[in-house]
Structure formats: structure tokens, C-alpha cells
Amino acid sequence: MRTMYSAIIVDDEALAREGLERELSAFPEIEIVARCANGPEALRAVETFRPDVMFLDIRMPRLSGFEVVELLGDEAPLVVFITAYDQFAIKAFETHALDYLLKPLDPARLKDTIARLHERFDAQKRATRRLMKNREGQGFLSRLLIRRQTDIHIVSVDDIAYIAARDDYVHIHARGEHFVKKERLGLLESRLDPSVFKRLHRSYLVNIRYLEKIEEGQIAVLKDGARLPVSRSGLKALRDS
């Protein structure tokens, strides 16, 4: 019995979606379960259909293909990036994508991609991993993408007052709001400007622009009134800044 694979197509151009679907019709084992015109639609489709593979355009408005993969994290299916721009190839494979196809599609290359899907599916169904977030030359983050169910919030790093660690999650306090993101504090810290964000305590990272004062060397008081514990090493980091 032939193994069937559920798939979604994500591209902001209707003609591109239709063209890819025509090409995929040559492979009866591929069942298209959703067609998406942008990143938010793709996030909802993955949550609804739990597809085996996602054919994903890279350059799209609102969210790029790479940002879609980042937001999905460990929930991402296998990903085949499709784009007209070959300069994204290295970045695509850094996400452990199944394949990377250039527009206009070459039917022979697509056939190779489907063969690769067959080879890898059983052993690596969930092969797409989080984007490598600290790539050399990338620079520090200027914003965070945070999911709340099907909503997407884009939080400027400049608006973050402090970040607290809770198990495998970080609690981000910005603009008077509270956001939760599944990520280790240490990893997030490595992607933020160390001249701005200081580790006050093993569980707290503070934006020094929001720091009002230190009380008795043990409590950091922020401009919004928040009070955070300060360890000895955290106090030294503040004094050295």
C-alpha cells in the first residue's frame, strides 16, 4: 500500500499556488489539505491539519517563510522551501529543510524532492527544527515573534522591560503586557544585545534602560514599579555596565 502524505502549499501568489498544485498532481501520494496565501494562514493550517510536509515560499508579506518555521518550532512539519531567490539556500538548509526549490519549478527536481520525502519520512517525520538563531553575522534581535493561539504578536526588543525564566519558557514583560514564549532564557539572552540586557539573577534578564534603582544591593526597581531580585553576579554585571 502506498504511503500517503498530507501537504499544505504556502505562497502569497495565487498563480504560484495553482502551478505547484498542478505539478504535485503527478504524485498521487501527495494530498493537498490546505492552500495558504500568507504566514498567519500557514500557522493556522498547520495547527488544524497537522500536515506531513509544507511547501513554503520564503518571501511573503507579514511573515517570511523562515519566520513561519521559527514560530512553529518543534511543531513544524517537513519543509520544502520554494523561492525565486537562490541566495536563501544556505539559510534554508540551516533550518534542516527537506529541500529547497527554485522558481520556476523544474519537474525533475520536484520528483527528486518527493523521492527524498519518501526516504526521510519514516525516520525523520518531524525533521524541521528551530531556526539556528545565533548564526554568525546575524546580529542581535530587534524584535520577537510570539504566538498566542492563532494570533501573532511582534514585540520590539526596545519595548521589553524584563524577561523572567520559568522552566522551558520565558515570560516577557513589555509595554505593560505579559507574553509567554517557549524558549530557554540562556538562548534568548545570547541573541540580545549584552550592553542593553543584563542578567540580574539566574531567572531574570533586565533591560537597563528601564532600571530605576537598586535597593540595598538586592532588589532592582524598574521604572514601571516592578521589583526583581539581584544576585551578587548580577550586581557586578550592573556595576560593570
Automatic annotation (TrEMBL):
Residues 6-118 form the Response regulatory domain. This is Response regulator. The keyword Phosphoprotein applies. The keyword Nucleotide-binding does not apply. It comes from the Bacteria. SUPFAM superfamilies: CheY-like (SSF52172). Residues 144-241 form the HTH LytTR-type domain. Signal peptide: none annotated. GO terms for molecular function: DNA binding; phosphorelay response regulator activity. The modification 4-aspartylphosphate is found at residue 57. Keywords: Phosphoprotein. The lineage of its organism: Bacteria, Pseudomonadati, Calditrichota, Calditrichia, Calditrichales.
